[in-house]
Design brief:
Pathway: Purine metabolism; IMP biosynthesis via de novo pathway; N(2)-formyl-N(1)-(5-phospho-D-ribosyl)glycinamide from N(1)-(5-phospho-D-ribosyl)glycinamide (10-formyl THF route): step 1/1. InterPro entries: Formyl_transf_N, Formyl_transf_N_sf, GART, GART_AS. Keywords: Purine biosynthesis, Transferase. There is one protein chain. The protein has 189 residues and is an alpha/beta fold. It has a single domain, classed as Rossmann fold. It is built from 6 helices and 7 strands; from the N terminus they run E-H-E-H-E-H-E-H-E-H-E-E-H. It has a 7-stranded mixed β-sheet with strand order 3-2-1-4-5-6-7, with helices on both faces. It starts with a strand and ends with a helix. 32% of the residues are buried. The structure holds 5-O-phosphono-beta-D-ribofuranosylamine.
């Protein structure tokens, strides 16, 4: 089974997936909407093919998503894992990969959707936050939830220490949930 990771930034989750020994799929492509993102260097280091594009050189979201779908189909990709892809997925991709697009988000959704979820949670003073893995729909972090893991916010936590704790959980939880999904979907065939 082949999967693509979509990421726009640093790529620590991408790297965690690549370093998971028992991942039940092959990460066969990185899709990146920022040709200068650090995640591209990570893909090169691991010899993962990259499809990088600049959205501004396309006339619309549908136009670049059509190109992405072409590239995914050519590579035989059946799952898409978003890991810091800072962009809403549109109908072109959602229809081509129905129920096969998953996202990881650093809060207990539906709390703190969107950008800087860790900072939002930290500054709101909640005592608990966490990580959510969910199916992607056309909304911003709104699709059906698959798994959540909570993290206590301690008095001594800083925004930075909270971020580190969340990242540690993310790097464990994403591969685990992906393996569960892959097993379930094989069982259905
Ligand atoms: C992660 O916190 C993920 O939950 C969110 O974007 C961040 C990506 O971080 N969607 P990285 O690029 O994987 O380090």
């Amino acid at each position: 089974v082949k999967a693509a990771v979509f990421a726009s930034g640093t790529g620590s989750n991408f790297q965690a997936l690549l370093e998971t020994d028992n991942l039940q799929c092959e990460i066969a492509l990185l899709v990146c909407d920022n040709p200068h993102a650090a995640v591209i260097d990570k893909a090169s280091a691991y010899k993962i093919p990259v499809f990088a594009f600049n959205p501004k050189s396309f006339s619309s979201k549908a136009a670049f998503e059509e190109r992405i779908v072409e590239r995914l189909q050519k590579a035989g990709i059946s799952w898409i894992f978003l890991a810091g892809y800072m962009r809403l997925v549109g109908p072109t991709l959602l229809e081509a990969f129905n129920n096969k697009i998953i996202n990881i988000h650093p809060s207990l959704l539906p709390e703190f959707p969107g950008k800087d979820a860790i900072g939002q949670a930290y500054h709101s003073g909640v005592r608990e936050t966490g990580v959510t893995i969910h199916y992607v729909d056309e909304g911003m972090d709104t699709g059906p939830i698959i798994a959540q893991e909570s993290i206590e916010v301690l008095n001594e936590d800083t925004e930075r220490s909270l971020k580190e704790k969340i990242q540690q959980v993310e790097h464990q939880l994403y591969p685990k949930v992906i393996n569960q999904l892959l097993q379930q979907s094989e069982g259905l065939i």
